[in-house]
């Protein structure tokens, strides 16, 4: 992950920003320069709702490089309150995870580029209970 | 529109940990078989490969492999990449090259080497099939994305776990007879259910093994082909969907496969019921069940049941993956689509040996890239 | 010190991670008498940040809670200070990461402050001054730390994780509380330090008490009461910096303050010493329950050494704000015990290599 690439996505990673199409009204994630539905360029950045429900989940035990310290962790698709879906991971899970479980977005450390590189932050989801 | 290309040569290497062989060696082994069988040289080469750039540090792969192999005179060569469907996409490139008349013959080679890196590096490289910024960034592995589909499917259609495990059992049974297969060992449902969890609900024995291998197909125009039995590439179709699973409406189907099937079957002027043999992209057991549904062999939610009832066995209603599929034959990622195509061709040629299915006139292979982002389907027909 | 124009607290919010490491568990690992430390320190367990948390992430959650209560547009936060002795980077501000995540800026002052456990209230003094002068309308001061003591060291039993954010703005009855005045009191007293290359801090053991903590906490508090013409019994709630559960009680006794006034804001027995967050998290817990008209005394302490002491009077507007975010006790009561091995894994105490790079 290059530094500019990380930096370009800060709005989506830190604040869960998506886009709303001013032409057709579609709200989507991740942010793009055009609406993925009607392909209009007339889009604006919007803050997505920070609460949603788990649509599906997987408890991952065999991680990619850099995620060893978090194993096991849940990979989830979350449907936010406005219907927009995002892929993410859960944090601070102490009970059973189920489809339909309510979760909220929290700001967390995602990975580190070694001991000397950048710390990558982003949004995870935490069960509301 | 000109005639469909015909297959004049095929080649396969045994899949496994090929310590002694480089990517070029594997490329040479499969290519040489196809060229010798065809008796003609290719005018152009399309290489299906996913991770040579990441794992082997080799881009400009087409020429690097040709020159590294030295198996035939250098001709224009291109790498075609669409994650796990790279092989299928390379075949599409060959199909277009010959059918359009731009080239008289095209060699399509799928080749991949995955055994030399530690497993976490493989997991990381394969995760590049997903959205790097919004899936891999958050630590989602490729297996975990497929696991999301498996959980949704089992819940939405109330499919028992054992039915999916049975798919792995059938694939392993089939692969015992396959000299090219990576895993030639029969397993039981219990073995699958008790194997290590990789990304729940996917267990180790739900997953296809990653290995090294190469597969080749030489296509030409029908009038240039020798021999009395010809297999034509009667139609191809590609279907696509969002790169991220979050963009999908449902997590218990793969619309990209349905779109590819519609296009391929329409081009080949067939319907799913006309198929005598089918190779599906069972990178994970769940993907075999979904493929049958999206291809249109069975209705929604009935894919796993089709396997459970024995309909996919070599002597069943529609034999599926009689060579063992990705699950047991092996999944050298970018080569996989070409393996599936070669297996269908050899079935139609009656050259499948102990794996031969009866009445093989029409067959199709299915090749999927990403967690349902890019599907390729090709239909082969035997002509006399 | 009294502000030129009145300054009020509009929002407050805290965060305490759910993981708890008991003093008994640390004692077990280092072969100490399991009850000795617990009794000596009056600390039962400490809050530990999870593996994906640091001073920036905790500051963000505290900041979100404070913004919810303040009802202020993040763009109107003209200054954001993060006080911490455990910044994620040696060089690169924590405050810009926190501001970005909260939607604060770009037209905002942002900086990290370091003064051991006093860094949170330093930010509060600075934002009060900026608001009072009219340079900004609202300011946010955060104290956030994932403090660690050396393995087996006395400090390891209490060094904890937590964060609190306070948003101040122009004086108003509709706010949560209004500042009466403050005092800052500093001297070069080397009771605790960490050199650049050192992973863990060093300290002067008993020297951290009389010449350091007590001299500064009591000195600042006495000066504040004198300046405002107040006596100990005028305060309904008193919060002192709480490196353990014992020091604040001793300071209260020395100052003639009733131990009952300390009760609500004394959290270290349950969560340990959250360093730069410690005194303001106690203040936050008081704001969670205090009634209009009540008076609150807050005195921090930072090694090296200094104290900031504040007097606030609760305003009518507190009631409408209180339930707009999680309260301190919501976080304190949500606890998941971990063992020492998991603690090491969470806080980078295990050197990775080989299979797990």
Describe this structure in words.
The complex is a heterotrimer of chains A (about 130), B (about 375) and C (about 350). Chain A is built from 2 helices and 8 strands. Chain A has helices at about 5-10, 10-15, and strands at about 15-20, 25-30, 45, 50-60, 75-80, 85-90, 100-110, 120-125. Chain A is globular. By secondary structure, chain A is mostly beta strands. The longest helix of chain A is centred in the N-terminal third of the chain and has 6 residues, at about 5-10. In chain A, the strands form 2 sheets. In chain A, strands 6-5-4-7-8 form a 5-stranded antiparallel β-sheet. In chain A, strands 2-1-3 form a 3-stranded antiparallel β-sheet. In chain A, about 10% of the residues lie in helices and about 45% in strands. The mean pLDDT of chain A is about 95. With about 375 residues, chain B is of the alpha/beta class. Chain B has 2 domains: about 5-120 and about 210-225, 3-Layer(aba) Sandwich (Peroxisomal Thiolase, Chain A, domain 1), CATH 3.40.47; about 125-210 and about 230-384, Thiolase/Chalcone synthase (Peroxisomal Thiolase, Chain A, domain 1). Chain B is about 35% helix and about 20% strand. Chain B has 13 helices and 11 strands. In chain B, the strands form 2 sheets. A 9-stranded mixed β-sheet of chain B has the order 3-2-4-7-1-8-11-10-9, with helices on both faces. By secondary structure, chain C is α/β, with parallel strands linked by helices. Chain C is about 35% helix and about 25% strand. A 9-stranded mixed β-sheet of chain C has the order 5-4-6-7-1-8-13-12-11, with helices on both faces. Chain C has a 3-stranded mixed β-sheet with strand order 3-2-14. Chain C has a two-stranded antiparallel ribbon with strand order 9-10. In chain C, helix 1 packs across helix 2 (about 35-40). The longest helix of chain C is centred in the middle third of the chain and has 20 residues, at about 210-230. Chain C starts with 6 loop residues before the first strand and ends in an 11-residue tail after the last helix. The interface of A and C includes residues 68, 69, 109 and 119 of A.
């Amino acid at each position: 992950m290059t530094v500019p690439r990380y930096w370009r996505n800060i709005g989506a990673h830190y604040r869960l920003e998506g886009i709303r199409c001013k032409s057709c009204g579609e709200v989507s994630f991740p942010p793009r320069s055009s609406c993925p539905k009607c392909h209009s360029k007339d889009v604006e950045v919007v803050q997505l709702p920070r609460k949603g429900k788990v649509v599906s989940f997987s408890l991952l035990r065999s991680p990619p490089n850099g995620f060893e310290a978090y194993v096991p962790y849940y990979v989830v698709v979350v449907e936010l309150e406005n219907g927009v879906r995002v892929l993410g991971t859960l944090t601070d899970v102490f009970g059973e995870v189920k489809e339909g479980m309510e979760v909220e977005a929290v700001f967390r450390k995602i990975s580190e580029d070694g001991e000397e590189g950048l710390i990558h932050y982003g949004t995870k989801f935490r069960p509301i209970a | 529109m000109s005639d469909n290309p015909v297959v004049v040569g095929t080649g396969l290497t045994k899949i496994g940990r090929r310590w002694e062989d480089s990517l070029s060696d594997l490329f040479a082994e499969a290519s040489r078989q196809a060229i010798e069988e065809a008796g003609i040289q290719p005018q152009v080469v399309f290489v299906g490969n996913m991770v040579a750039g990441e794992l082997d540090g080799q881009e400009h792969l087409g020429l690097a492999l040709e020159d590294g192999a030295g198996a035939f005179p250098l001709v224009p060569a291109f790498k075609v990449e669409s994650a796990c469907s790279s092989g299928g996409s390379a075949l599409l490139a060959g199909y277009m090259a010959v059918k359009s008349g731009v080239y008289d013959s095209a060699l399509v080679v799928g080749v991949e080497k995955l055994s030399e890196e530690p497993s976490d590096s493989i997991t990381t490289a394969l995760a590049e099939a997903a959205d790097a910024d919004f899936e891999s960034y958050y630590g989602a592995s490729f297996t975990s994305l497929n696991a999301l589909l498996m959980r949704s499917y089992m819940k939405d259609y109330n499919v028992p776990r054992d039915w999916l495990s049975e798919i792995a059992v059938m694939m392993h049974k089939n692969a015992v007879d396959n000299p090219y297969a990576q895993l030639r060992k029969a397993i039981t449902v219990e073995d699958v259910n008790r194997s290590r969890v990789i990304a729940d609900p996917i267990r180790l024995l739900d997953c296809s093994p990653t290995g090294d291998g190469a597969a080749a197909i030489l296509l030409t125009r029908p009038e240039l082909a020798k021999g009395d039995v010809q297999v034509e590439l009667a139609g191809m179709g590609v279907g696509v969907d969002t790169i991220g699973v979050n963009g999908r409406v449902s997590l218990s189907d793969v619309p990209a496969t349905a779109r590819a099937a519609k296009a391929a079957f329409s081009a080949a002027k067939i319907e799913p019921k006309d198929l005598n043999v089918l190779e599906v992209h069972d990178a994970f057991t769940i993907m075999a069940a979904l493929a049958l549904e999206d291809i249109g062999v069975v209705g929604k939610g009935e894919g796993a049941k089709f396997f459970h009832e024995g309909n996919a066995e070599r002597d069943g209603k529609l034999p599926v993956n009689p060579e063992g599929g990705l699950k047991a034959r092996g999944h050298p990622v970018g080569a996989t689509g070409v393996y599936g195509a070669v297996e269908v061709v050899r079935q139609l040629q009656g050259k499948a040996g102990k794996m031969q299915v009866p009445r093989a006139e029409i067959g199709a292979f299915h090749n999927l890239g990403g967690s349902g982002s890019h599907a390729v389907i090709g239909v082969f027909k035997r002509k006399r | 010190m009294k502000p030129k124009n009145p300054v009020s607290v509009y929002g407050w919010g805290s965060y305490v991670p759910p993981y708890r490491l008991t003093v008994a568990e640390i004692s077990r690992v280092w072969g100490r008498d399991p009850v000795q430390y617990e009794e000596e320190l009056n600390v039962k367990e400490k809050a530990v940040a999870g593996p994906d948390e640091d001073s920036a992430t905790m500051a963000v959650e505290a900041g979100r809670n404070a913004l919810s209560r303040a009802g202020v547009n993040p763009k109107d936060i003209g200054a954001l200070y993060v006080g911490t002795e455990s910044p994620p980077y040696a060089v690169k501000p924590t405050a810009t990461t926190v501001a970005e995540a909260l939607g604060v800026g770009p037209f905002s002052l942002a900086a990290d402050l370091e003064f051991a456990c006093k860094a949170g209230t330093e930010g509060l003094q600075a934002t009060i001054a900026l608001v009072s002068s009219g340079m900004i309308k609202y300011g946010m001061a955060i104290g956030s730390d994932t403090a660690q003591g050396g393995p087996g060291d006395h400090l390891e039993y209490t060094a904890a994780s937590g964060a609190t954010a306070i948003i101040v703005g122009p004086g108003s009855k509709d706010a949560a509380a209004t500042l009466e005045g403050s005092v800052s009191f500093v001297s070069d007293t080397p009771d605790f330090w960490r050199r650049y290359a050192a992973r863990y801090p060093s300290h002067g053991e008993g020297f951290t008490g009389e010449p350091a903590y007590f001299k500064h906490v009591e000195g600042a508090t006495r000066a504040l009461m004198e300046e405002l013409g107040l006596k100990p019994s005028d305060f309904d709630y008193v919060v002192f910096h709480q490196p353990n559960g014992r020091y604040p009680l001793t300071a209260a006794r020395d100052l003639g303050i009733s131990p009952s006034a300390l009760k609500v804001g004394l959290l270290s027995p349950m969560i340990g010493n959250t360093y730069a967050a410690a005194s303001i998290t106690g203040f936050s817990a008081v704001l969670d329950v205090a009634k209009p008209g009540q008076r609150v005394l807050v005195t921090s302490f930072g090694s090296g050494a200094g104290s900031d002491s504040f007097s606030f009077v609760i305003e009518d507007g507190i009631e409408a704000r209180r339930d707009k975010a999680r309260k301190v006790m919501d976080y304190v009561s949500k606890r998941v015990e971990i063992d020492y091995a998991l603690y090491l894994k969470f806080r980078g105490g295990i050197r990775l290599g080989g299979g797990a790079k």
